[in-house]
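SEQUENCE AND FOLD
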Amino acid sequence: MSRAIMRLASGRSGAMGDGASGQRRFKRRVTAVALGVCTAAVGGCFLGTSDPVGLGLGGTRCGSEVVMLYSDVGHCGACFQACAAEPGETAWCAGSQCYSARRLAAEQDGPDQLVVTATHVYWTSNCGGSIMRVGKDGGEPEVVALGQFAVRSVAVDDSRAYWAMACPGGPGSCCVGPTQVASVPLAGGQPAALSMSGSAPALAIALGAQSVYWTIAGEGIWMASTSHGDVLPLLDYGTFGHIALDETYLYVSGQLGDGFYDVYRIPRTGGDPTSLTYSQYVLGLAVHNGYVYWVNLGARGDYSTYETALMRAPLDGGPPVWIAEAAPSSCSRPSHKFAVDDARVYLTSPNSLWTVPLTGGQPETLARARLPDLPIGPVAIDEASVYFVLGDSVMKMPKP
């Protein structure tokens, strides 16, 4: 296969300084869709507080108690200033601000990789090795598939869920077992494998109307019919970590040879990749209304830091445009997942969920994490709501 690469645009990202309000105010209510018991520790960044949560580095005496005003739900920001919650909801304190949530499902194992459909929220369970779902209005969580460890990416259509899994042998074989791309009916059942060849992990997956596409580390882009037809290579070289599509093209972030990660466009029927950007170390990718969006690591050209920028470029080529700094608190990397609608981009970092207009502007923080035990993770949206991971939980809140 030819390895010609057309380059439509080049550019490097800029950056601007951090801006975060320290004011205490009661934020909008959010709705918990699922709560769980397995989460990765996040350290080193506590939203600017000099009194990190739960580390025993001092506190404030409120009556007979010594409390952390930064995180104590009964003394949030000041002694005896308790966070209120409506009936059926739970309140918490983060960054001296109050939040409340209604718990719709409990004790899930490490929710990740959110996907929202018209009726359900789907997620992966990194600890339990399962694909789960719950109704968007709550209810009993349902198991869609079991024995699915180290799922890198999930996509859902009207009838089935699809995922790319690096470790079909279980958590002990992560990233050394054969690649598996599998699917299962949305109501659950026995997973059906689309691909079990090769030794490199599958990294990302995307769905078209009749085809499913996925990337494999070092082995390019592959595709198959959603009716479980033959597996075919679309591009048999390169490493691509993220994938999105429109009606004509696939858009991937990846590396061809030893260069920087760039954003490429490839016809869905096959062909040579076209570079839309240059020297962009991409952490996440989305396509919407004529633009490709991505989060770029190394916002000031220093790839050893966690400084990041939200960027976009026209799908038919043109210089990249800087939208905003991608992590308002720059000490931690944002999630690989973000979401775009007609007006805004929604992103997460371990510290916060925030949004910014498509044309740029001042970021608005929608929710903050209670670190280190409740970091914020991936985000997904529908017409009216924003869904995101908070520690062991999948949360729901209205769009601003």
Notes: Confidence is low (pLDDT under 50) at residues 1-7, 9-57, 169-177, 299-304.
